Amino acid sequence: MKRYGNFFTKIVDIENLQEAYYKASKGKHWQRNVRMYDADPMPWLMKLKESLEQGTFHTASYTTKQIYEPKERTIYILPFYPDRIVHHAVMNVLEPVFDKLMIYDSYSCRKGKGQHAGSKRCMDMVRHNRYCLKCDISKFYPSVNHEILKKILRHKLKDERLLALLDDVIDSTHTETNVPIGNYLSQWFGNLYMNELDTYVKQHWHVRDYIRYCDDFCFFSNDKDELRRIRNELPGYLAGTLKLMLSKCQLFPTAQGVDFLGYRHFPRYILVRKKTAARIRRHLRETMHLLKQGRISPETAKAKVASAKGWIQHANAHHYAIANHIDELWDEVSSYA
Q1: How confident is the model at residue 204 (pLDDT cuts 50, 70, 90)?
Q2: Is 62 helix (H, G, I), strand (E, B) or coil?
């Protein structure tokens, strides 16, 4: 396995830090903790550059909040400066490297992939296979083992100053497991961690039709016994190699519909999941209420309706669009802008 190095100087380059600043602040210039740096960010970025080069940067303490959709989770929040800027600076440099390590059918975090592309690819697999083995990991992000993650990173990278910086972020929870949901770097840590499974699936089990988004993944085959064998071997691999446990692992005919990435995929059509549809309805009602009260801008409201419109357009859901007046809402929101 080739190991990659000489990244740290690129990460602390002032142009890279500037790009990281603008990415981290995008859509957040109204926030007080961003506005205070916006007038003249360069002195702050020079100070950050010096801190990184001298090794005095350390991850700040987290604040947390609970969210309840689509399920209850704890979100960890770091300060905009310097932490979130550092995360973007790191990934500006590492993202192309990490992306090359991924299998084709890994769809989380990656440019040109994402939920809609993953759904389309899932649909291809549903159409060409009679059976699906659908699995997900129990409490994935809180279960990521720090020592295993560090070994994975050292297997890919050989830049000691960069590894020390990544170790600082990994150890910031002061626990043996957990990469905090809410960290930009955590998304990629999770992807690299699960890439170990992806590689094993392809190199040892030789599964052709396999797809993963974050910790949700599906195996497809016309041979039911092949999927039964994988179902029997999978828990042992996950526990022994990654110290993870399955939450669900269901084997069923694809004709029943494969629930993946917010859609239910059938061989001849695709539907929006009932839970996704209910969440869209609720968010649209809230959006219009807040817009009429002047509590959100027309641009923000339009973006939210556009997101809902996009979800509907990717499914066979014309009846749903009519029932919920998506097009009418789009026209109404556009009239405010």
Answers
A1: very high
A2: coil
Tokens 């692992």 sit on residue: 249
**Tokens describing residue 34:** 């961003």
Q: Is beta strand 209-213 parallel, antiparallel or unpaired with respect to 63-67?
A: unpaired
Residue 85 is encoded by which pair of tokens? 């800027």
Q: Where in the chain is the domain with CATH 3.30.70.270?
A: 108-144+179-268
How far is 136 from 145, CA to CA, in rounded Å? 17
Q: pTM for this structure?
A: 0.89
Q: Which CATH number fits domain 108-144+179-268: 3.30.70.270, 3.40.50.970, 2.60.120.760, 3.40.50.2300?
A: 3.30.70.270
Residue 45: alpha-carbon gap to chain centroid: 27
- For the stretch 106-138, pLDDT in tens is 999 999 999 999 999 999 999 999 999 999 999
DSSP state at residue 84: I
Q: Strand pairing partners for 63?
A: 77
Q: Bridge-partner residues for 217, per DSSP?
A: 135, 212
Q: Is the peptide bond before 96 cis (omega within 30 degrees of 0)?
A: no
Q: How far apart are CA 197 and CA 190, in angstroms?
A: 11
Give the whole-angstrom CA distance, residue 74 versus residue 51: 30
Contact 193, 152 (CB under 8 A): yes
- The 3-state DSSP class for residue 96 equals helix
Between CA 312 and CA 314 the distance in angstroms is: 5
Query: Whose structure tokens read 């309840």?
Result: 68
How large is the angle between the packed helices 85-101 and 14-25, nearest 10 degrees?
100
DSSP secondary structure string, 199-225? HHHHHTS--SEEEEETTEEEEEES-HH
Neighbours of 333 (CB within 10 A): 22
Give the model confidence (pLDDT) of 293-318 as tens digits: 888 878 888 888 888 887 787 888 66
297: phi then psi, degrees, rounded to nearest 5: -80, 155
Rounded Cα distance between 87 and 27, Å, is 17
